[in-house]
């Protein structure tokens, strides 16, 4: 069976590319953030495998909704794809009722990563979860936290944590993680929850991790579960295509995605981001996306998280 699967992969990749037409890979967050860097690690390998130039385009804003909507409106001709984290795909559809696309409009192609959410602070900020809770209670609502936009994973995870510890915090949304980090370093906000690559790139302090167990990347950082707050969240990312994209186009990009994730340059790039490579093919990724949509419908309902929180 493994031989047949590998044969199928090579057959798909042997199909001729469409006249070397450039492929646009839309990233729905700003340049320099984890999503952008993942796309730029993948692009050269995908280009070589597919025999077509890959152009990374940043269409940021509204916690990833702007870029997702752009791809949802694109022609289904195999020339436009989206690299998006979880927010616009599984959280926003349960957070907003005015999305400019339906959650099932975008066609899952392949999952590329899944990374735990890390709560972090800048030098001079809180060092422990107990200190976060203490500062927030003393501030009486004036303790600020950053996110990459309303309805993003950093937003939802932090609101859930604040409610679990009984501390009131003020949400300060930004267009992307670069702006959020600048605000954190200026101490305009006290904490930020995001992917671990953000922490490493900016010499920030890991307070706690939203995971079932400690990470090998940060073995001294406790989980929230260890600290008495049973919250587990991760930020997964993957490629999506416009609605109506032909199955053979999806299959070809999926095969290229699988092969690209095995290349040393991509493996090393993701390692530097402290981002585990997690591959799911189109069918498995579609099922996973659907499960996550339902999961966050329940999370948002039970936590009572609404726009404005």
UniProtKB/TrEMBL annotation:
CDD domains: PBP2_Bug_TTT. Gene3D superfamilies: Bordetella uptake gene, domain 1, Periplasmic binding protein-like II. Residues 1-19 form the signal peptide. It holds the Pfam family TctC. Keywords: Receptor, Signal. It comes from the Bacteria. InterPro entries: BUG, Bug_dom1. The keyword Signal applies. The keyword Transcription does not apply. Belongs to the UPF0065 (bug) family. This is Tripartite-type tricarboxylate transporter receptor subunit TctC.
């Amino acid at each position: 069976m493994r031989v047949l699967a590998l044969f199928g992969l090579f057959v798909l990749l042997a199909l001729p590319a469409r006249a070397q037409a450039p492929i646009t890979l839309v990233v729905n967050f700003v340049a320099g953030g984890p999503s952008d860097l993942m796309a730029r690690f993948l692009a050269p390998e995908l280009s070589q495998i597919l025999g077509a130039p890959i152009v990374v385009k940043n269409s940021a804003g509204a916690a990833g909704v702007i870029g997702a909507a752009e791809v949802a409106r694109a022609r289904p001709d195999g020339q436009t794809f989206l690299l998006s984290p979880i927010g616009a795909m599984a959280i926003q559809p349960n957070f907003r009722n005015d999305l400019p696309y339906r959650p099932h409009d975008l066609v899952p192609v392949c999952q590329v990563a899944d990374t735990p959410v890390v709560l972090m602070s800048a030098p001079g900020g809180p060092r422990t979860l107990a200190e976060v809770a203490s500062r927030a209670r003393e501030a009486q609502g004036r303790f600020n936290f950053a996110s990459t936009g309303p309805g993003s994973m950093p937003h939802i995870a932090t609101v859930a944590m604040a409610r679990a510890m009984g501390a009131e915090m003020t949400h300060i949304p930004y267009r992307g993680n670069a702006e959020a980090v600048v605000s954190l370093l200026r101490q305009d906000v006290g904490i930020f929850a995001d992917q671990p690559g953000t922490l490493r790139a900016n010499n920030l302090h890991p307070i706690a991790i939203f995971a079932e167990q400690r990470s090998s990347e940060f073995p001294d950082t406790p989980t929230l579960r260890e600290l008495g707050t049973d919250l587990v969240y991760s930020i997964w990312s993957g490629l999506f295509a416009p609605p109506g994209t032909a199955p053979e186009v999806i299959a070809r990009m999926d095969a290229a995605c699988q092969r690209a994730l095995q290349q040393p340059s991509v493996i090393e790039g993701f390692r530097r981001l402290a981002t585990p490579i997690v591959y799911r093919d189109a069918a498995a990724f579609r099922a996973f996306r659907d499960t996550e949509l339902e999961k966050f419908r329940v999370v948002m309902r039970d936590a009572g998280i609404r726009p404005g929180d």
